[in-house]
Amino acid sequence: MERSQQQSQWRGIAVSESLRSRIAAVDRLSDRLMSIKIDTGRKILRIVAAYAPQTGCKEEEKNMFWQERDDYIASIPQDEILLLGADLNGHGKVIPGKAAYLSISHCF
After folding, report:
1. Is 14 part of a structural domain of the chain?
2. Which end of the chain has fewer surrounding CB within 10 Å, N or C?
3. Has residue 107 been placed in a domain?
């Protein structure tokens, strides 16, 4: 887990002890976006954790988050399995070429 310098919240991705040796990469893209890549032996599993800016944040910050998230997800090869876990603060969005989703805050 990683603690944001700007906020007093922890962000991270919990991984079972049995999968730790299969972690192929960890990407900490920003205080709001990170991912891990796990080689399952049959498929690559990409787990992305995202925390969207809240309603009161500046539009520039929100737009930067969505662009960064969209660009990163678009860069993931189609043959990888994508799991997106996020607190999107009630925002819903379609990712081109990926599944559509609607965020429900704090749902695990």
Report:
1. yes
2. C
3. no
> Does residue 108 lie in a domain region?
no
What pTM was computed for the model?
0.70
Q: Which residues, including other chains, have CB under 8 Å from residue 32's CB and lie 6 or more apart?
A: 11, 50, 51, 52, 53, 65, 68
Q: Which CATH number goes with the domain that contains 71?
A: 3.60.10.10
pLDDT digits (tens, 9 = 90+) for 9-48: 556 788 889 889 999 999 998 888 999 999 999 999 999 9
